[in-house]
Amino acid sequence: MAIRAVLWDIDDTIFDYTSADREGLRRMLDDDGLPHGYASVEQALLRWRELTDVHWARMAAGETDFQGQRRDRVRAFLDRKLSDAEADDWFARHVVHYESAWSLFPDVLPVLDLLAGYFRHAVLSNSSIHNQDRKLRTLGVRDRFEAVLCAVELGVSKPEPAAFHAACEALGLPPADVAYVGDHPDIDACGAAGAGLTGIWLDRGGRGGRPELIRITGLAELPGLLRPDTRFGAPSTFR
Q: Are strands 120-125 and 198-202 parallel, antiparallel or unpaired?
């Protein structure tokens, strides 16, 4: 059955989250100074990324909520006891710097333009609608997507099949008609495939491996996968 819609991840798929997060924290450290216990800015940046992964996983597992994972990240990063208000204040100041560094990956708009007349588009993200809808609007692409679904509001997150099925239901399409594109091989590509969608791993870093997955290293490869039309690239390999 032909693919009729593309479901997209946001962070590190269409939005350069990693670069914005690093640059935002770097600017925050310029203002606040290097916290106690860190020998260098790079060490602090690495620790922040590790803590982000840990506490997002806790949220996905239902151990905390969206605001709670933010507060816990700050407390662990600063290695200090902070009230909720103090942690919220620190994170709010970080967000100002982080948002000033927001950008799309350069291949996003050209590919969305190429695919616009051929496929429907929606978003499924392991974040909150408040966060992601605002992000898409700020970046100027919200109107490219029929629907934006997020784990916080759904009550279930990727890679659970129910998250992918909720997005397919929003589109009114069976999973077999939908492709999912995301940067995480397990959460995105494997999760989508396990739910009956066509899972596509966007391996921007060229890590390779995982031969069982459909893998692309940039979005310019996506049209050739989705359409066997030679003007978009190579014939489809998964229909």
A: unpaired
